[in-house]
């Protein structure tokens, strides 16, 4: 613990030292102020010699900091550019998808138009608006109904072939029973042979989902894998000559009395979007035969 | 430990001052981080330590950036001494006090610098008003904000006695 006098003395000394240092610094600054045409002082030389590595490190630090922040700036620019490009890519992808969709739709409509023009039947175009979500029934709903001239049991086709028949009709919509439904049955024949005695019945194949079975063929029927199966027109429900599918295999039944064929449908029932309803078949085939044929 | 931390503070300040803030200064005005550090450290200690910190910081700056040797050492030592003298009169836990004081020290530092430049006939051909406005004014604002960011950390470091030891009774 110092006395007040000692404290004052210490303070005076401190102030004197500070003033002296300050003056010394000013003198040094005055000496080194104008360096033009002069070399550096010995003191500076020593200090700079000592500090040169530190200065080098500083320079590196500065360069690093500059490049670092420049990189951040570049990175920000790149991020912004990346975001813009992503947006454009997303827009382009959406456009591409839309174009592909339009192309496909255009192709389908073109084929439908060709079919409609070439067809000997009167056709009503309709769009598929719903599908039976259950796995038990194979039906679809179309956007045309009684108001458009749709009636029960009319055949439904696409450009690929036979789809099914009208199950029920509402004023503005109709349910279509697909060929793959267990309730559906079509009289069919082999296009290659076209023998009247080789008419089979197309039903769904319970052991082979998505495939059809052509049953009740004579034991010696001329049928082989790859044959094209078309509707026979018997019964009047379906017009004659509509493509049903292609034979993938044949076999005899258990009793070896008849043979059957597994038929792969020509129509992809999972991708039905537009269909035609055939409205004039009754003019060709008497409606009186329908029940007998379809009931079997 | 404390001298090392203070040295690192100087290094960091000069690195920032010579790089980032040299790039980011509005209309060519750069903040003097070293002055802010000097004032902050002086306010957290006393006039003797403030003077030493200012002297070291200024010398460091003079040697590293090629200014007349002792020029900024004198300016910063003066600022550090006065800030140290004021340390007894402020509430050190209130950040606003150093923020306001650093505005005054910025003005003071630039004023002294101007007169020294005149004294040694190094540049400063324009009038004091032109010299102080707008660069000093902008620097005052910048220093005010930067002190607000830096001081709380330095205060906490000092509370843990990482910067200076407690004052001796002799003082």
Which structural traits does this protein have?
heterodimer; A: 296 residues; alpha+beta; Thrombin, subunit H; 2 domains; six-stranded antiparallel β-barrel; six-stranded antiparallel beta barrel; 4 helices; 40% helix; 25% strand; rod-shaped; disordered C terminus; B: 171 residues; mainly alpha; Arp2/3 complex 21 kDa subunit ARPC3; 8 helices; globular
Task: Outline the structure in words.
The complex is a heterodimer of chains A (296) and B (171). Chain A is an alpha+beta fold and 296 residues long. Chain A has two domains: 74-118; 123-295, Rod shape-determining protein MreC, domain 2 (Thrombin, subunit H), CATH 2.40.10.350. Chain A has helices at 4-33, 42-118, 281-284, 290-295; strands at 123-131, 139-142, 155-157, 162-169, 174-178, 186-190, 199-204, 212-218, 228-231, 243-252, 258-265, 274-278. Chain A starts with a helix and ends with a helix. Residues 282-296 of chain A have low confidence and may be disordered. The mean pLDDT of chain B is 82. Chain B is 71% helix and 0% strand. Chain B has 171 residues and is mostly helical. The interface between A and B is medium-sized, with 34 and 31 residues.
